[in-house]
Amino acid sequence: xxxxxxxxxxxxxxxxxxxxxxxxxxxxxxxxxxxxxxxxxxxxxxxxxxxxxxxxxxxxxxxxxxxxxxxxxxxxxxxxxxxxxxxxxxxxxxxxxxxxxxxxxxxxxxxxxxxxxxxxxxxxxxxxxxxxxxxxxxxxxxxxxxxxxxxxxxxxxxxxxxxxxxxxxxxxxxxxxxxxxxxxxxxxxxxxxxxxxxxxxxxxxxxxxxxxxxxxxx
Length: 218
Fold this sequence. Notes:
about 10% strand
């Protein structure tokens, strides 16, 4: 029997790899993408193009009100996105408090109402140190909550939770994931800045794989 799932697709390289990975495994997918007032909103267009390429239905959910509540450098106009490595203390400015819990809760409502068995999202090990809502204990807590939130249970899965970005590339390249049509930079300019934590982590993954990033080859 075909397994039905909701997948959160941001348009970044991790969730896009997961999208292609699950499609290749034969899941019946419905994507949800969140517009939470992020400066790098061009990632949403990447998510839409990749969903269309795979024939995966997509809902874009307006969560722009979140920008007024979160106070993150990713959503606040007068706060600059910090540059450096994710290990640097100033990277905590990029945390959007409780974002994933809100997104996952909305995805769960959709999954339950549409009678889907799973929710997938692309948290990975590189997120753990800086983003509390990507840590294994958070994922486990949300799994427990989803077992209790409704009479119909829905399973939360984060299959890349123990992987780094280079590991994710190892999965994506055989699947021909179009990384040139993903967006990582937090600044959301015309071209990637190459200096924010997200750009730095992406560049390191491609260096480890000894492969040029196709985003810069366009």
